[in-house]
Design brief:
The chain is about 35% helix and about 15% strand. By secondary structure, the protein is of the alpha+beta class. The chain has a six-stranded antiparallel beta sheet with strand order 1-2-3-4-5-6.
């Protein structure tokens, strides 16, 4: 009886090996170019799932592990594919690489279940520092021209006065309406993006501020709304950095039922002073979800509220 059971299990195991999703390595159409040391780090830590140069260990070839690996590679290539990244505009490449390094720094990437079996993919503190130095070089502080400063100041005064939203703002392609009240929300974090030459401020509505004060941010409660506001960086004559021209504002709106198909969040973005909605159709939100997917254990949120925001609302 025991022999038959073992033989049956062995037969099932062998039959399972035939259930193999297709996983190919197409030719690299526009491989990402970088200094040799940076490229070596990315190859060992990222290329297995984020390129067309996937190399599987012998144990990755065994079903059911193979099915999980194939799914991870397919999803990984959709989010970031280094074999095609070289074809993207420089600004887009910089933004993608910044998010990739941010996820490594936060421990979201490489996936822990992957590094447990592939310890060579772990990014060391020294390697992370090398990636940050490459992605975020310190730019020369050239003072901004006075005309540019005056133009940015005039735009900012309009922004504060609400003049830029005095005309109807078109809703996002997924139906989310613009939220002009975000200008009165509290700041919970900020980033200085030297890679895209922008300064970003993360603002949160009252629901989010209350959740921060009560330490209930994973998951964030329904009704939470974040606004990521972006301006161009403007160096001054003293070497300081100030906000310049308004670039865009993006929203994340938490409603686990209404936005169940997009990870429980509504996504929307408006570009430039004219507040032009981003995206051709509602499918643009899939790109947002894909970017935030590695942070699913953090309710898809990159922002860690600064300590000062953790006090009473």
């Amino acid at each position: 009886m025991i022999v038959r059971t073992i033989a049956g299990l062995a037969l099932v195991f062998l039959l399972l090996q035939l259930v193999r999703p297709k996983l190919t390595n197409p030719p690299a159409t526009a491989d990402f170019e970088a200094p040799a040391d940076v490229k070596e780090i990315l190859r060992k830590a990222c290329y297995a799932c984020h390129s067309n140069e996937t190399r599987l260990s012998w144990f990755d070839e065994i079903v059911p592990a193979y099915q999980l690996v194939a799914s991870d590679v397919k999803r990984g290539r959709m989010v970031l594919n280094f074999s095609e990244l070289g074809a993207q505009p420089k600004a887009r490449r910089n933004a993608v690489l910044f998010e990739a390094v941010s996820q490594i720094q936060m421990g979201a990437m490489p996936l822990s279940r992957y590094t447990r079996l592939h310890p060579e993919a772990v990014v060391t503190p020294g390697e992370l520092a090398a990636l940050r130095d490459y992605i975020l070089p310190v730019p020369p502080a050239r003072p901004t021209a006075q005309l540019d400063i005056e133009a940015a100041d005039a735009q900012y005064r309009q922004w504060i006065a609400g003049a830029s939203t005095s005309h109807p703002v078109q809703a996002a392609p997924n139906g989310i309406a613009f939220l002009p009240g975000y200008k009165n929300w509290r700041a919970i974090s900020s980033t200085d993006r030297t890679d895209t030459n922008t300064l970003k401020m993360i603002l949160a509505n009252d629901v989010a501020i209350r959740a921060i004060a009560e330490h209930k941010i994973n998951p964030w409660p329904n009704g939470t709304v974040f606004a990521k506001v972006s301006w161009m960086r403007q160096p001054d004559e003293n070497g300081g950095i100030r906000t310049g021209k308004f670039e865009q504002v993006a929203f994340m709106i938490k409603n686990s039922e209404k936005y169940a198909s997009t990870a429980g969040w509504g996504w929307a973005q408006w570009m430039g002073a004219e507040l032009k909605p981003f995206g051709i159709d509602a499918n643009f939100a899939r790109e947002c979800v894909a970017c935030h997917l590695p942070l699913r254990k953090n309710d898809y949120v990159f922002t860690a509220p600064i300590a000062a925001a953790r006090g009473p609302a």
